[in-house]
Write a structure and sequence with these properties.
Blueprint: H1 2-6, H2 9-18, H3 30-62, H4 68-92, H5 108-136, H6 143-170, H7 175-198, H8 200-230, H9 236-257
Helix pairs in contact: 2-6, 2-7, 3-4, 3-5, 3-6, 3-8, 3-9, 4-8, 5-6, 5-7, 5-8, 6-7, 6-9, 7-8
Length: 258
C-alpha cells in the first residue's frame, strides 16, 4: 500500500504546477506570454536531455547494448511521430472548409499537452522500474532511494504542469478546464508506473527507447512551435530570457534531484 501511494507522488507535482493557473489573470500580458513560451521551451529542452536522453543512454549501458543506439532510434521516432500527426490532421478533417488554414495543423497547446504527456509516460515507467526492483529485492535500490527518485520527478513536474495549464488559460479556456488538462497530462505517470511493475522484465528492455521517443517529441514541439512564436513580433528578447531561465531551472532540478 505504501509503495502504491508512492507512485502517485510525481503526479501530484504535475497537479501542483497545473494549479498555478488559478493565480494568473484571465488575459495574459503579451510580454508575459513571450516569457512563458520561452520558459516552456527551455524546460522542455533541458528535460529532454537530463530527464530522458541521458537516462536512456545510462539504461542502455546497464542492458549491455550499444549505449547511444536506443537514444538515437527513439529520438528520431519521436520526431517522425509528431511530424506524422501534424500531417494527419488535414487528412482527418478533409470534409471541413479547406479555406480554414488553421485546421491544417495541430494547435500549439495540443502539441504541448501531447508532448508533455509523452514525456510523463516513460518517466512514470522509470519510477515503476525502480519500485519493481524494490519489491522484488533484486536491484539493490532501497525504498528510500526509490522514494527520493519519485520526489525528485515530482518537483521537476511542477513547471511542466504550469506550461500546460497557463497557456491554455491565456487562449481563452476557463481556469478550471485548463487545470484539468494540465492534471490529465500527468495522469499517465501512475498508469505507466503500475503497468511497468506488472510487466517489469518486458518493459525494462524497451524503456530506453520510450524515454528518447518522448525527447524527440518534445524537441519537435520546441523547434516547430515554441521558438518561432517567441521570436515573432516585438519583445523577442523576453522569449530568449524565459528560455534561458527555464533551461537552467530544469537542468538544476534534474541534476540536484536526479
Amino acid at each position: 500500500m505504501i509503495e502504491f501511494s508512492s507512485l502517485l507522488i510525481p503526479f501530484l507535482g504535475t497537479t501542483l504546477g497545473s494549479a498555478m493557473v488559478f493565480f494568473m489573470k484571465n488575459q495574459m500580458n503579451p510580454k508575459l506570454a513571450k516569457i512563458l513560451l520561452g520558459f516552456a521551451a527551455g524546460v522542455m529542452i533541458a528535460a529532454s536531455v537530463w530527464s530522458l536522453i541521458i537516462p536512456s543512454i545510462d539504461m542502455s549501458e546497464n542492458l549491455g547494448i550499444l549505449s547511444w543506439t536506443p537514444a538515437a532510434i527513439g529520438f528520431l521516432l519521436g520526431v517522425v511521430f509528431l511530424i506524422f500527426l501534424d500531417f494527419l490532421v488535414p487528412l482527418l478533417s478533409f470534409k471541413n472548409d479547406s479555406s480554414d488554414k488553421s485546421k491544417g495543423k495541430l494547435s500549439k497547446t495540443t502539441m504541448l499537452v501531447l508532448a508533455v504527456s509523452l514525456h510523463n509516460l516513460p518517466e512514470g515507467m522509470a519510477v515503476g522500474v525502480i519500485f519493481a526492483g524494490v519489491l522484488m529485492g533484486t536491484s539493490g535500490v532501497t525504498f528510500a532511494g526509490a522514494l527520493t527518485l519519485a520526489l525528485g520527478i515530482a518537483i521537476q513536474n511542477i513547471p511542466e504542469g504550469a506550461i500546460i495549464s497557463m497557456p491554455l488559460c491565456s487562449e481563452g479556456m476557463s481556469k478550471g478546464k485548463a487545470f484539468v488538462f494540465g492534471v490529465l497530462s500527468g495522469a499517465v505517470e501512475p498508469v505507466g508506473a503500475i503497468f511497468t511493475i506488472l510487466l517489469a522484465e518486458q518493459m525494462t528492455a524497451i524503456l530506453p527507447y520510450l524515454l528518447s521517443f518522448a525527447a524527440g517529441a518534445m524537441f519537435y514541439v520546441v523547434i516547430d512551435e515554441l521558438i518561432p512564436e517567441t521570436q515573432s513580433g516585438e519583445h523577442c528578447v523576453l522569449g530568449i530570457i524565459g528560455a534561458a531561465v527555464g533551461f537552467v531551472l530544469m537542468m538544476a532540478l534534474d541534476v540536484a534531484l536526479g
